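Researcher: Let's do a round of design. I'm pasting the structure tokens now; please hold your answer until I've finished.
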């Protein structure tokens, strides 16, 4: 019944359209709809003034559990291009996105990444970790895919899209260099990153951190008492003093972890709030991809004993504590 309802909603949303799907307007900006904020930012950077971008998932929204609304379906059906992540990130939306792909240009931007660059996971042996945006070097490849998708829809703007993508990728190179520098200042024995769910595997691989998530790569997985107990043992054995909450995930399990460590006589504090599956507030620096990763690298480095400027790479992070 659920699949039938989705198919009916797609047909209902697409039926009133007077222009063919995937059209490139001569005067108006291209209408681009994305699932996550990270993809929306890439589309805005590459498309510039030639695109109008709408992200279905805003700040603090968990893409693993997100279900499309009727207004989402209408927005996608009326778009020139729909960009989604793939790699099972939008698990609840895959069927509707596949239905949409029969009618309009729909591109799963992370599915284009070479499989040898993707992380596997014991929890899902037949799938890959989708959190590729945690490594700016990988994200530059996603920007290529966004660029190519826009060119296919509006080839007359190819030169502009290529120039914008190159400029943004230069910023990503600078971002990656900043992250490497500040995170290398964290003492080797302190490079243990404990978070609410396992979203930082690519980050850990890129910057040499052991990453421990209470939940698995999907927030839909449950964290049991045994997992909490295992992590408390690690906190005590490795003298971990700071753990991190996430902006799009409840802090309930992190609080339980801190309480469990305290019961063992080991004091752990919250080192800060990280952006994992969603960026910061719209209109803020942290609401951009650059700001999201700048924030994470800066907060992690400072909380774990490294050196980083309080306001980040370009002195643009919001002032004051970020917990």
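Researcher: That's everything. Go ahead.
Model: Designed sequence:
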């Amino acid at each position: 019944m659920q699949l039938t309802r989705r198919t009916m909603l797609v047909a209902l949303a697409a039926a009133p359209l007077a222009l063919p799907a995937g059209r490139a307007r001569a005067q108006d900006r291209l209408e681009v709809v994305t699932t996550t904020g990270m993809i929306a930012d890439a589309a805005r950077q590459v498309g510039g003034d030639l695109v109008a971008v709408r992200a279905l998932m805003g700040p603090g929204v968990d893409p693993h559990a997100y279900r499309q609304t009727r207004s989402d379906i209408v927005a996608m059906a009326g778009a020139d291009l729909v960009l989604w992540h793939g790699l099972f990130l939008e698990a609840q939306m895959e069927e509707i996105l596949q239905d949409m792909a029969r009618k309009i240009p729909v591109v799963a931007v992370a599915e284009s990444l070479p499989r040898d660059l993707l992380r596997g996971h014991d929890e899902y042996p037949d799938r890959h970790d989708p959190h590729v945006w945690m490594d700016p070097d990988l994200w530059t490849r996603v920007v290529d895919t966004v660029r190519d998708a826009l060119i296919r829809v509006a080839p007359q703007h190819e030169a502009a899209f290529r120039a914008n993508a190159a400029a943004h990728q230069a910023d990503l190179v600078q971002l990656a260099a900043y992250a490497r520098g500040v995170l290398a200042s964290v003492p080797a024995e302190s490079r243990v990153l404990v978070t609410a769910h396992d979203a930082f595997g690519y980050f850990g691989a890129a910057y040499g951190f052991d990453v421990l998530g209470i939940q698995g790569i999907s927030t839909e997985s449950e964290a049991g008492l045994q997992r909490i107990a295992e992590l408390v043992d690690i906190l005590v054995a490795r003298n971990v003093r700071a753990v991190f909450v996430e902006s799009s995930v409840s802090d309930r399990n992190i609080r339980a972890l801190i309480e469990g460590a305290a019961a063992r006589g080991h004091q752990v504090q919250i080192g800060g709030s990280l952006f994992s599956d969603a960026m910061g507030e719209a209109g803020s620096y942290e609401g951009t991809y650059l700001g999201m990763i700048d924030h994470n690298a800066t907060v992690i480095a400072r909380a774990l004993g490294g050196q980083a400027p309080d306001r980040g790479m370009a002195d643009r992070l919001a002032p004051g504590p970020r917990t």
